[in-house]
Amino acid sequence: MKKIMISALLTSLLAACASDPVKNSTDAAPVSDGSASSAQSARTAGTQSDPLNDPNSPLAKRSVYYPLDVYVVQDADRPTIAAHANYLAGNPNRAVRVEGNADERGSNEYNLALGQRRADGVKKLLEAGGAKSDQVETISYGEEKPAATGHDESAWAQNRRSDLNYNAR
Amino acid sequence: MKQLFRYCLILALCAAWPARAALNIEIIGAGANQIPIALVPLAGEPELAKSIRDVVAADLTRSGLFRVVDPAGKTPHEPREVTYSDWIGVDALAIGSVDTQTAGRVTIRFRLLDTAKQVELVGQGISTNSDQSRAAAHRMADLIFEKLTGDPGVFSTRIAYVNRQGKNFRLVVADSDGYGEQTVLSSNEPIMSPAWSPDGSHLAYVSFEHGQAEVVVQSLLTNQRKVVASFRGSNSAPAWSPDGKQLAVVLSRDGGSQIYLIRPDGSGLQRLSFSSLIDTEPSFSPDGQSILFTSDRGGAPQIYRMSISGGNAQRLTFGGGQHFSPRYSPDGKSFVFTHLENGRFHIAVQDFDSGQMQLLTDGGWNKKPSFAPNGKIILFATESDGRGILATVSSDGRIKQKMFPQAGDIREPTWGSLLK
Asked: Which CATH class for the B32-149 domain?
């Protein structure tokens, strides 16, 4: 009886102290593409439009995903990275920031390191495909900016990810 | 009686302090060999007296070393009013008064009595500004703790943590029971891994405000900030050396995530680990000669120890599961860490001599443990209803406490040092 009363009290206190659990951490601040550099790259590529902006180009895919505790780019994603490497090789004035992420299992610091290794792995492949080292910056957000929240595999799978961000610099 | 204690003691402190209602506190567990103590409500303004008693009771209970006994309506305030035969069941008795006569000041005068020997153990006056009566109560709890256990009390110390609300991250300093939050830094980019300087004057932490993870040191006195490590890639996991003259940090600039030493002014960079894999979460031993860290060099994250002068690292955690976030105990004889098995995080402690791991909590979302400066209580982050909250466990694992913040998602707590 006492227990029930206490838990009822606790529940009401919790309800009284509850707050918004909304955690939307998708970064919604797109920096506009420098028009000068777009024009320049179009000249370099000898085409009218930047293939980066073509939704049907393989370059439209800007994220690669990983199994748990893995930081090697998966075979299925290698053509995507190869396309970006090819683009960077043909557009030496363009630069990309590779942003590594991890799911929330593990410690925050371990996950930061894991995300960094994922990003660095993408950078190596980009360089192998012809990108110059100074065209590719890598950072990690670890588990700090999850694309999906929730303690389940469907959320975790979306968060084990490297993003190629052409708007960061 | 024991069952009653086993189940809980809920202190609805929100009600007692409407102006600073930050948390609800829930304490669960029963310890062996606890010191039974009665805290008689102080004479003086009843609501204030009750509040002070509640803070002292929560502090002592949280340590796991005390059993706070109901004074059952008896209200002596002076030694001459004490009938010792009334207090057979308790070892000690705290009595006294709280005085609000001086405008803007609160003065607690209390005595701690040994009920067996019928002598006074401590008699002390504590005076604070009236908006700091909680601080006075923590000081009273420290004095009682010190007198009856022989160890320093830690209730007047401070803790730091990150409070995330939506996209906003705040680096926060609070009292050891989670009250009195003060925001040190507010940012719309992540903040991670706060670490107290040994003298409590500075916090080192990781900030993403310039895009990548950087190590920042901030003075709590002047709020002046200094970016200590901002090399390409990630800069993270700061840990102060015991003399405060160096930081161990983790940098990815040379490949992998590796441990380096750097001075708090950003000079004197020196590489310590050479695995080219993930070596992170350094923690200095109290003598400054060794570092514990997390590494995946064995294929999965485990805890290792290396000498500050280099040489091979020794693996310390084995068996099933993964292990993270090691922190030395203040006496250097054991370390606390996170044990992850079957998707559940436990707080665990391991003795260096025996190599035996002891789980201090059930499995759940328990992360980032750190010792109180007297080694008796461990602070960590846990989760309740999908929100990160603070929790403590006594170092014997018997007494657990959860603290429920009103808002936000608490991450990365760390206990500050003992201030003289």
From this structure: alpha beta
